[in-house]
Every structure is written in structure tokens, then in C-alpha cells.
Amino acid sequence: xxxxxxxxxxxHRAKEGARVLEDIxxxxxxxxxxxxxxxxxxxxxxxxAPIYDTKEDLGGMGLMEDNVRFNIISTIQAxxxxxxxxxxxLEEMESISSNKQLIKELRYQAYNLHAKLxxxxxxxxxxxxxxxxxxxxxxxVISYPIEEIIEIxxxxxxxxxxxRNKSASKKxxxxxxxxxxxxxxxxxxxxxxxxxxxxLDLGDGIHLGQNDxxxxxxxxxxxxxxxLGISCHSLKEARRATQFDASYxxxxxxxxxxxxxxxxxxxxxxxxxxxxxxxxPVCAIGGININNVDQVLTADIKMAALISxxxxxxxxLKAINDMxxxxxxxxxxxTVPFRSTNNEKAEKTxxx
Length: 352
What we know:
Blueprint: H1 3-28, H2 32-44, H3 72-93, H4 97-127, E1 132-138, H5 146-155, E2 160-164, H6 170-183, E3 189-193, H7 196-202, E4 205-208, H8 215-221, E5 227-232, H9 235-243, E6 248-251, H10 268-277, E7 282-284, H11 293-296, E8 303-306, H12 316-334
Parallel strand pairs: 1-2, 1-8, 2-3, 3-4, 4-5, 5-6, 6-7, 7-8
């Protein structure tokens, strides 16, 4: 094999890595800016002839590799490095100074896109869990010990739980939140109600009402990937919440419930209007149970919150999983994949 084979192999390697990253941005992250930036790099990599003599490659099909990717982050890491390393080899092998500089520019663009993809994917891994059954742990309402509650939740298929207590002292709220955080499956999100300090310390996000910490200030004090949920009771409040970069909004209460007996119920029609207008996930809340959830699912909701219903059944774990499955089945029917808005251009061989 010759230098031309080396160059040929690394052109293919770079384009393959770029294609994997491009499709992750397009179909998983659904980030059009990243998708187009990666696509531009792939298009600028010189087109090469097919590799015909793969049997002579010592690192080819006969080399066994342990390259199982466990999540989107590991896939991004592997393919971003593949792209960068291949570009470095091409840069070293290039004998024309101007071409070498062009390849170097591509390599540094690849470094920058790697960082952006990593950040966006980290956010995606957290935010894509904001769907299905939104289980609220309210120790004022649920009679089970916290340890038993968490044990059941960890066995369940839910992605997200909220800890709420309106009556305990801050010290006891922190104590319970800490216990939940320590015992909760790390693949499940923990949202803290009301207390921004505890949420920043222990949680993946904060849930606030209209009269809690000033909504316009929250994004200034939390990390970019921090989940911000906001309770709303009308389309007007929902619009306002999206202006403050809410991760999701909770609409209710929809039905009579002992946990919120001081609110005027929100109609299903109002819920449908909110779902039809806002771009963030909507969580329906308030008195939802197996007998009325089908009414709620007529709206384009992403989540439905339950507090007391599941814990009053004979089998809380089954009730949790059944309700989560029902909501997720509805979500699956609503999913629309990302699509590029412009027609793809034909690949062109760059100057180098």
C-alpha cells in the first residue's frame, strides 16, 4: 500500500465521521444550524476513489474492535475524533502549503463543532426525558415512606419526578430532597418545586408557580441545560412563560383535586389551545386519573402529572407504568422528525 492509499483511507474516514455527526444533528438533536455546519465540512472534504484493496489493510475487516457505543455522547466523541484525526493525517500528508492551510481550517472547525455537539447532546439527553408520566412526590399527600416511594419509582418506566412539599420547613425539605437524590435512579430527572437553592444543589431543574421567584430572573442564575417548569392557568400565562425560556409548562388544574383546592379549573379546550400555540412541552395537571386521562390526551400534551391517584391503587407500580405507557403511546403518534428546509446541494470537490 502507498501514500495514496493512506490519503484515500483518511478522506473516507473523515467523511464517514462527518456523516455520522451530521445525521445526529439532523435526526436526533434536530439542530439545523449544527446540521448545516457539519454538512459544509463534509462537502469540503475532497471526494476520493473507492477503496478496492481493503484486504491488504492491516486495520481493516480482520481487526476486531470493541466499539459499542452506549449513548449519543459516546457516538459523538468517537466520530468527532475520527473526523479530527483523519483531517490531521491529511494535513500532514499534504505537500501544497495553501491546501495544507485549508485542511487545518477544517480541522479547527471540527474542533469547534465537536464542543457544540457535545453540549447540545448533553442537553438533549436530559431534555428528551421530559415526556410521559410526570410523577410528583408530595409528602403532604402521599402516605408512603420516601424510601418506599423511590424504590417503586426506580422500578418504573417514568423519566421525571418532582419533589414538592408546601408545609415542611426548608431544613426538612432539603433533607427529604437529599434523600431522594441519593436513592433515585440517576437516569431519572429530579425536579424541585419552588426552592431554587435546593434545586441548584440537588436537582436537574426547578418548577415554579406564577408568584414564585421572578420568572424573568431564573435563566440568569441557572445553568443553560437546567430544566425550568412553570405552572400556568391560561393561554396568556403560557405565552408569558415561553418568553422566559421555560423548558415545559404545566397547565391546570383540569379536574377537582385535594392537592389544589384553591384554583378555578382549566378547561380541556383551554389546554388544547395552549398545546396548539406554544412550542415547548405541555404537562397537564390536576385530578388526572385513569377515568379522565383520555380527555386530556385529546390535547397535544407531552406529559401528564399525577400525585395522589397512583398511590391510592392496590399496585402503584403497575398504575405508574400503565399511565406512562398510555401517555407515551400518544406521544409517539405526535412525533415529527426534523427535516432540512432546503434542498441538499450536490457535493463538490474543494480547491484542495
